[in-house]
């Protein structure tokens, strides 16, 4: 039995969106994963580190789920709903959370970490990362790339200009901060949304795709999208991901 537009909207609008767990979308939306396997790379780097910092850790799900954490592990997060979730998860693993405002300066002394990581940072403060890294230390990040999920954004907002998240710009910024880029890769990955509720949940959680999104403000377009999915099948978009690893010279 097909669920009505009203039922799908009500369910998705009421679903909690704290943290960075997308399991609510299981069976309702899907996204290809980058071939490099960020979680695997992160686990390998963390297992070999002595002091690590994870910037913009979200709800702490990725960091807390790693098999091994360094003896000194610290994370930062600024979004208030995420802070208690991340603090509890990381405390259980012997790691600490520092609430910050995602603006420089990072609240740490210079040269104290041999590994700094960040998954999907809103913005990368390269000079600060270089400052807190020890000589020979590394930064590993999976970033959102250019024109990510633009098909969905443009459905609601109309034609958009190109994104400023070009991989080569990240290389230039890292090198300007005194780091050496040792790996830089990018991929575009297929996404599918199987019902309008999945779209609502996604846009409530990933708030930069359609800035200011609310069900009430975008109700007409949501109904159009529901009708399109019912008639044509899943709404297809493409995410963009960039892997970058950089080192501070000895």
UniProtKB/TrEMBL annotation:
It comes from the Bacteria. It holds the Pfam family Methyltransf_11. Residues 53-139 form the Methyltransferase type domain. GO terms for molecular function: S-adenosylmethionine-dependent methyltransferase activity. The keyword Methyltransferase applies. One of its GO terms (biological process) is methylation. The keyword Transferase applies. Keywords: Methyltransferase, Transferase. This is Class I SAM-dependent methyltransferase. It comes from Nonomuraea montanisoli.
